[in-house]
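Researcher: Last one for today. Full complex below.
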Amino acid sequence: MLTKRIIACLDVHAGRVVKGVQFIDLVDAGDPATQAERHAREGADEIVMLDITATHEGRQTLLDTVRRTAKELFIPFCVGGGIKSARDAEEAFTAGADKVSINSAALANPALISAIGASFGAQAVVVAIDARRDPAAKDPIRDAQVFVHGGRKPVGRRVVEWAREAEDRGAGEILLTAMDCDGTRAGFDCELTAAVSESVSIPVIASGGAGTVAHFAQVFARGKADAALAASIFHFGISTSRSLKQQLEKSGVAVRLPC
Amino acid sequence: MRVTVIDYKAGNLTSVLKTLHHLGAETQVTDGDLSLVGSAERIVLPGVGHFAATERLDSTGLTGAIRAAIAHGVPFLGICVGMQWLYAGSTEAPSQPGLGFFSETCTRFPEGHEKVPHVGWNSLEPLPGSRLFAGIEPGEYVYFTHSFKGPVTQDTAATTHYIEPFAAAVERNNVFGVQFHPEKSGATGLKILKNFLEVSR
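Model: Here's the assembly. Have a good evening.
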């Protein structure tokens, strides 16, 4: 049976794992390669590494980190942050990434999605969408808006429509972050996740708000997510992917166990 | 152990090479040097993306060289599209023939309630006697990402269920194929690749 994936996310800044609340107040959470290896050992199904403050100078640091992290990692490994061209993506793949996550660069140049997919396959292209409900809209879910620049700037596009376009252009997966939930540990945005998941045929990874086992069970059932991503709940020894999955299995969610 | 890895520009070889090195194999990559196929101890053909990309195997002469190596008993492993290429072809690119080592054709998962592509960790049911799956228990998980798949036949070495049962792996004599990505499938995947590296000629 196809299982729901638990994805451990490492937000990286200047070569270190960090964690913040709604993308601010960053706290040091360790070395990326060490953390990735630990997550894999503790049962994560996949690792996502996002360079959250990617700059031109930072890209070389990121590639070194990717190389070091990928060396002994034998589960899928996705890298994002600062990937603006097919050439940047190629460098990440050569350094050992299996997938790249693109966000603002895809919005600025949607043809980038198919450009990367043409050389490396659709499965290697994850389009990340930072989403916020629009409380002023008649339908806050259907009209949820896409944001960029760490959730600070709206781009004037609806989330569901952009996800569909990304799929049409050859994205392999959607990584959907509900900005209002991110870092709060108060639960995923299940309604928004379901709206996106039902609109596309590619997998949707839910992100933002993971705090309890019940939150994961909800986003898989009600949110129709194919995978769920979490960062802060794993970082300080609160829980491991394995213990999370053992508890999810008891509530009837298909997960990869033993792992 | 030296492994010749075929590069036909269908995706990224880094993960496969890295995993083979981790298992103690030496690798040599060829995108058209047929002598590296002729002298190969084992051959791995990875590949992701569109079946049409396998046209490059024909235009470079690699198809003929691989066919000859297989006939000489060199162990061969196709991964993902590399497995599909072992069949007569795929409905993904009907005008592009495969190797035809297995006579069937790969087809797309049927449309319905489930998402296509099939992406993620799914369980294996290895069939008795498979050399590739020696020591692998029923229900162990491996990582898939694909929309096309081969049918279950007498050459199937392991099945997986998604929408319907399909061939997670094929095996006949020295020819092996896996639809999943062993290089991305944790300890189970490493064990399967190790079995391939240790299979006797």
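The domain at 2-198 of chain B is CATH 3.40.50.880 (Rossmann fold). The radius of gyration of chain B is 15 Å.
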